[in-house]
Each structure stands twice: as structure tokens, then as C-alpha cells.
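Per your request, structure below.
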């Protein structure tokens, strides 16, 4: 499964809490696919900046774009995330939305995303909130369930 991460935020406990996620292929800003195993809470996820990453010849039909939502999404990025999302959806890339529920990591009410997301992405044809976003809970036992849900969504053929 190939997964692109659209957030420059730290990866948090995504791998430390769930070894089931293992190693994924990810896109990097230099346009190359790389293998990356996640080892530490302090590591940064790759930041997708180059729209050329979405080359149809590079990605499989089961490729997903993982979008991490917290209070900082769409803030001060110069329209970069909007552009990435529009391009990904135009190419029929599946979007997996994950929203942070831990206040220490930027949790906010889900309604906040409707006020900061460009209207073009909310309305047809993009409708990024059409699919249910997976909550990434703060409590360890719930967070593990969240991580399993994220993994299932990434490997599914939705």
C-alpha cells in the first residue's frame, strides 16, 4: 500500500503504538517513492510539497493520501494543502482523513474544519468530508483502536 502524508506535523504515536502499521511506501518532496519505517515520536512525516508526486504512472490504484487534521490544518500554508487535495481528488486518489482528539496535539471541534477548509473542497465535486474522518483519540486504549481503524482504511479498497 502506498500512502502519502500531507502533513508536516510529527507522526505522534502512530507507529509506536501500533506495530501493525509497520513500513509503508511514502512520497517525499523530491518526487521519489521511498521505504520508510517510523521509529520515534519525534520524527517528522514527509511533507508533500511537489504536486508532481501525483504521477499516475507512479502510484497504484490502491494508493491513499492520509490527511492529518488538527487545529493547524490549512493555516499559513499558502494554499499548499488545498492544491494537493484538489490534485489528488482530480486524479481519483483516495483520501483518508484522520482528526486529532488529543488537546495536547492540536485537537479541536470537528466543526472547526468547516470554517478553515476552502469552500471549494467542501462542495462538489471535491467534498473532502464526504467520508467519515477517523478520530485519533488521546487515551492509549482508544488511540490503539484509532490506529487500527486508520490501518484498515489505508489497506482497504474503498
Amino acid at each position: 500500500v502506498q500512502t502519502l502524508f500531507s502533513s508536516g506535523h510529527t507522526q505522534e504515536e502512530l507507529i509506536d503504538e501500533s506495530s501493525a502499521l509497520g513500513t509503508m511506501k511514502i512520497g517525499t518532496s523530491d518526487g521519489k517513492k521511498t521505504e520508510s519505517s517510523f521509529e520515534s515520536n519525534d520524527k517528522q512525516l514527509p511533507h508533500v510539497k511537489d504536486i508532481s508526486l501525483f504521477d499516475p504512472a507512479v502510484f497504484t490504484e490502491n494508493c491513499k493520501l492520509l490527511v492529518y487534521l488538527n487545529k493547524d490544518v490549512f493555516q499559513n500554508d499558502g494554499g499548499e494543502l488545498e492544491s494537493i487535495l484538489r490534485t489528488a481528488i482530480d486524479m481519483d486518489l483516495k483520501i483518508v482523513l484522520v482528526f486529532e482528539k488529543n488537546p495536547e496535539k492540536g485537537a479541536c471541534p470537528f466543526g472547526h474544519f468547516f470554517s478553515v477548509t476552502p469552500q471549494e473542497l467542501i462542495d462538489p465535486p471535491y467534498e473532502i468530508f464526504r467520508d467519515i474522518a477517523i478520530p485519533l483519540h488521546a487515551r492509549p486504549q482508544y488511540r490503539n483502536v484509532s490506529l487500527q481503524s486508520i490501518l484498515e482504511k489505508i489497506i482497504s479498497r474503498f
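DSSP finds four helices and six strands in the chain.

Regards,
D.
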